[in-house]
Amino acid sequence: MTDTNVETEKPMKKASKLPLILGLVLALVGGGGGFFAVYTGMLFGNEPTDTASTESQDTPYDALPDVGYVALAPFIVSLTSDGTASLLRFSTQLEVPSEHLEEVERVKPRIVDVLNGYLRALSAEDIESPDALVQLRAQMLRRVQIVTGAERVRDLLVMEFVLS
């Protein structure tokens, strides 16, 4: 009986790894091809135009805007917060279109007054947060634009901002 059992049992065949390897290779090739098509703009991209590329080669740089700068005298403002006083040293320049330089120079005392009043109203806690300079700059630019007119001052550049 033992002889018949041995003859009837056949060794199990291992499953072929060819379909697994073939599937993995096709997935990698398909993924790479899809990435290439999207990355180069063949799919979901804008059609490149020849005129845009030749125009950018003809003009290497855009002309800088015709602006001037009006420097304001440095401010030293005392900040009060819970009885302790801190000092803020602040200096700024205004970016002004060249045609409005003289007009902004004439109202410079009013600009200094507005900025000084705003800075005196601040406490040390208002200035110590990480995004405080961005908010303060926007607030001061808006106040300056109200005094001078929105088209006369383009930007307020903070040159010095020291809290001690």
Average of the residue pLDDT scores: 83
In total, the number of domains comes to 2
Cα-atom radius of gyration = 35 Å
Helix and strand run: HHHEEEHHHHE
Cα end-to-end separation? 102 Å
Number of helical runs? 7
Give the total of beta strands.
4
- Structural class by SSE content: alpha+beta
The low-confidence runs, each spanning 5 or more residues with pLDDT under 50, are: none
What fold name goes in the CATH topology slot of the largest domain? Answer: Tetrahydropterin Synthase, Chain A
Question: Looking at the structure, what is the overall shape?
Answer: elongated
Q: What would you say this structure looks like, in words?
A:
Strands 1, 2, 3 and 4 form a four-stranded antiparallel sheet that branches. This protein folds into two domains: 16-62; 67-163, Tetrahydropterin Synthase, Chain A, CATH 3.30.479. The chain contains seven helices and four strands. The protein is α+β, with helices and mostly antiparallel strands. α5 (108-120) packs antiparallel against α7. A hairpin with a 2-residue loop joins β2 (75-81) and β3 (84-97). The protein has helices at 2-8, 18-39, 50-58, 101-106, 108-120, 124-128, 132-148, and strands spanning 67-71, 75-81, 84-97, 155-163.
